[in-house]
Amino acid sequence: MFGTEYLLIPGPTPVPERVVRAMQQPIINHRGPVFHEIMAEVVDGMRKVFKTAGSRIMFCPSSGTGMIEASAVNFISPGDKVLVISIGNFGNRLAEVAEAFGGDVEKMDFEWGTAADPEKIRERLAADTRHEIKVIMVTHNETSTGVFNNIEKISAARGDHPAIMIVDAVSSLGAIDVQMDNWKLDVVLSGSQKALMLPPGLGMMAFNERAYEVYKKNTNHHYYWDIDKAMKFQAKGETPFTPPVSIYFGLQESLKMLLEEGIDNALKRHLTYRALIRGAMDAIGLKNVADEACASPGVTAVYVPEGHTPGELRGIMLNDYNMVVSGGQGKLSDTTFRIGHLGCIREMDLVSCVAALEMTLKRLNVPVELGAGVKRMQEILLAK
Ligand SMILES: *Cc1c(COP(=O)(O)O)cnc(C)c1O
């Protein structure tokens, strides 16, 4: 096949040409003056993306899960009661990580395909009159089901309960609004390879003063992930251990792109992607996992037609149309596929994806009217 594949998975996502070029710069001394300037610039830029004025931002060479671990080791002490709110596979991962580091986990599960109910969370926390729950962990955008949680309402549901809240914003930051300060989020973690339009390999975590106070009393083991070590080096524009210098060049550029576009405009762009994909699935007659009200702007999980497997469908899309979509996750593995539409995606990439999907379904003898989904997308785009 000519050129690169259409990469429409929920991370890693396509990297824009500007960012690729920025990353081609020769490697520099990570303890030299140019790196010091880059560090200052990306800390400042990330604060704008997290929408926080004063939170500290820690970077670590890591995938997103590494940052979940970083949050666990720094903010959960062994024996702490941790309330994990789960609406899917990534919510379950939060519980696993918290448990692995000694957290006494209580999981609140909500049905896959729906969002967490802030009212139920309010009730649970109100019942905790002795304030035994120390930490709340929640996924912002649940990548396995294509559902996003209303983090503003979940945070407000705490009332005056003192537990700190850790938010996994790996697949939301840059695609779905995160207002760290306004919503009083204590810890927000993310990764480079989703809506931040970078290759995998750099994790970031923002945390406020309240969280820092909790860290200071923390009794867990931490060395690589230790916050104070990171902050001590950041004061000099450095990291304790060798940073992925090329990804910092890329981050410098992708932040420039995001801020030129305007973060809120980027969020709107993702709403268009959601409308396009959901509109197309409706027109084709495929069922989305997520309810309309909580459907993710960044990823859509779709049920495969009865009698077919995600593997069959994805195989044809890949081999014959160079179109890469994801399989399902967890208990949705055998019944769903997922289209990632976050980061550096063009509307026409999604139109191509739907055109390929329609032909794939036709070849699988699924009754589908060729062009129905594409037509719906064209109508949505013309009405914009
Ligand atoms: C992608 C993702 C992660 C991180 O996954 P890694 O493979 O470790 O980068 C964590 N949480 C959510 C919600 C994600 O979508």
Topology:
Layout: E1 6-7, H1 17-23, H2 33-50, E2 56-61, H3 64-75, E3 81-86, H4 89-100, E4 104-109, H5 118-127, E5 133-139, E6 141-142, E7 147-148, H6 151-156, E8 164-168, E9 187-191, E10 202-207, H7 209-216, H8 227-234, H9 245-261, H10 263-284, E11 299-303, H11 310-321, E12 323-324, E13 326-327, E14 336-340, H12 347-363, H13 372-382
Parallel strand pairs: 1-12, 3-4, 3-5, 5-8, 8-9
Antiparallel strand pairs: 2-10, 6-7, 9-10, 11-14, 13-14
The protein binds pyridoxal-5'-phosphate.
Pyridoxal-5'-phosphate binds near residues 63, 64 and 191.
Describe this structure in words.
The chain has 384 residues and is an alpha/beta fold. It has 13 helices and 14 strands. The strands form four sheets. Strands 2-10-9-8-5-3-4 form a seven-stranded mixed β-sheet, sandwiched between helices. It has a three-stranded antiparallel β-sheet with strand order 11-14-13, covered by helices on one side. It has a two-stranded parallel sheet with strand order 1-12. Strand 13 and strand 14 form a beta hairpin. Helix 2 crosses helix 9 and helix 3 packs across helix 4. The longest helix is centred in the C-terminal third of the chain and has 22 residues. The two termini are 33 Å apart. The structure holds pyridoxal-5'-phosphate. Pyridoxal-5'-phosphate binds next to helix 3.
